[in-house]
Amino acid sequence: MKRNLQRWGALGAAAVSLAGAMVVTGGTTAAHADVRCMVNTIYINASPGGDPKQQALGHSHNTGKHYVGSYQWYSTGWWLWEWYADNDGGSDGDTADTWYGSSWCDHAAW
């Protein structure tokens, strides 16, 4: 029993440490990297049967395409970028895009 308590204590400490790291990085490390303050020109809705293909500011990588759906300047001198996931449904039509995250950036998205 004592060994199990020690083992669970170590696992609990590791979980608390990981949770602290996730808070520092904005929730999850993968999502944080995906809402960075850097964009390229990409094309969303590119599969046939979905919405018309259109140009957007964002990036593509192994978890999909993410684009800046809106951005707003605040009097603090920062821009808030709202990121969306391109949920391109392919041949069965286009699935509505979903909010992916937000980031505070020191410049506009263009």
UniProtKB/TrEMBL annotation:
It comes from the Bacteria. Keywords: Signal. Residues 1-33 form the signal peptide. This is Uncharacterized protein. It comes from Streptosporangium roseum (strain ATCC 12428 / DSM 43021 / JCM 3005 / KCTC 9067 / NCIMB 10171 / NRRL 2505 / NI 9100).
